[in-house]
Amino acid sequence: MSDHEKRLKALANAHRLQILEWLKDPTSNFRRQVDGDLIDDGVCALLIEEKLGLAQPTTAQHLKALVDAGFLVPKRIKKWTFYKRDEAALSRFMRSLADTLQ
């Protein structure tokens, strides 16, 4: 599977698109966290799971797909994993996709 295909597959899911949308503005979309800053460190997977309303394993699969596609950056703090968007990677992909389709 090519990088483009992997990334498109990651985006071909409503839950994953929702996660990316929420993470554009984490302070408006998530409650305060005990550990980690929503902007600097990202959003705890537990908060994403809560907001999605899905089981932990399902949420973890969605987050893994977005990390594998290069759209999210994970960061471990204590026993938790926090996620934030990789804006540069998202921009590169969008430009590359536009170039491919034009």
List key phrases describing it.
102 residues; alpha+beta; Arc Repressor Mutant, subunit A; 3-stranded antiparallel beta sheet; 3 strands; 59% helix; globular
In round numbers, the mean pLDDT is 93
By secondary-structure content and strand pairing, the structural class works out as alpha+beta
Range of strand content: 5-15%
CATH-assigned homologous superfamily: Winged helix-like DNA-binding domain superfamily/Winged helix DNA-binding domain
Distance between the termini: 22 Å
- Integer-rounded radius of gyration: 14 Å
Low-confidence stretches: none
Order of helices and strands: HHHEHHEEH
- Helical content stands at 55-70%
Instruction: Describe the largest sheet.
Output: 3 strands, antiparallel
The largest sheet has its strands arranged as: 1-3-2
Instruction: Give the overall shape.
Output: globular
What is the CATH topology assignment?
Answer: Arc Repressor Mutant, subunit A
CATH top level assignment: Mainly Alpha
Helix count from the secondary structure assignment: 6
Q: What is the tally of beta strands?
A: 3
**Count of the separate structural domains:** 1
- Give the CATH architecture: Orthogonal Bundle
Walk me through this protein's architecture:
This protein has 102 residues and is an alpha+beta fold. It has one domain: Winged helix-like DNA-binding domain superfamily/Winged helix DNA-binding domain (Arc Repressor Mutant, subunit A). The chain is built from 6 helices and 3 strands; from the N terminus they run αααβααββα. A 3-stranded antiparallel beta sheet has the order 1-3-2. α1 packs antiparallel against α5 and α4 packs across α5. The radius of gyration is 14 Å and the shape is globular. The mean pLDDT is 93.
